[in-house]
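Late entry, evening session. Most of the bench is empty. Finally got around to the prediction I had been postponing all week. Sequence below, unchanged from the version circulated by S.P.
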Amino acid sequence: MKKASVLCAITLAVLVFGSIGVVEAHFHTFWPDNENGYGRRGKEIIWQYFWGHPYEYIIFDAQKPNFYVIRPDGKRDEVKLSEVQMRDEETGQLRRAYEVRYTPTAIGDSWLCLEAPLYFLEEEGLFWKDYVKQCIHILAEKGWDTPVGMEAEIVPVTRPYGMEEGFVFKGQALFKGRPLAGANVEIEKFYGLYVKAENLPTDQYGRENVPMITRVTKTDVNGYVVYTLDEPGWWMISVSVEDGEAEHLGKKYPIEKRGGLWVYVEKRFVQK
């Protein structure tokens, strides 16, 4: 009887919560009005930014982020940041998001960088400290493989633009400037539109197939990550490592630091 009661309780938990141990991926999502990250000197670029689930386009209220640009010469530029509202289509609620504006002046590859404040995840019992970057390419291929100095980051080995669907991406994960071996790497596609629950991938039991939404791999002994990006559009590649603690309501929790990289994949070119 006791075993049956425990089994019933577990079954009920699965029905109520979807599955045991499944956690939806949250990422800092930002994309430019020029589609693929290419820019022109003197022409302003505008990014929309939200905090939430990029695959499903589910939006939560964002804390104020710290955005800046690292130019090809390594110098830092400030950006214009303004608070906006974005509607979360799942709930119909307006959420706090941001708009980023920057006018590039340098030829080469600059990086739009984000350092986010700490986010506490009660369901996981930890904090996230996120660092995210995205390349701005203008004419010259100079600077795309240069670290920007974030505490956690992925440095491209494959040039992070001019990639077609099906290309293999390779990068090196660094933590405090050193290769990060054996670390978890999450990969998730941003579709740019709300995906209803009934349109999400499911497994043979009818449950949401989370591993198909947030893909996972690991870095090798030298911190390298290799992954095939099989569809066009924006992709998040994010490495994580636990480091330090922070306090919430009088209790200390671990901090997981994540280094994210947004890359754009083009549609396959077919010569006419």
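Two things to note before I forget:
The domain at 25-266 is CATH 2.60.40.1930 (Immunoglobulin-like).
Helices lie at 2-17, 210-213.
Will write this up properly tomorrow.
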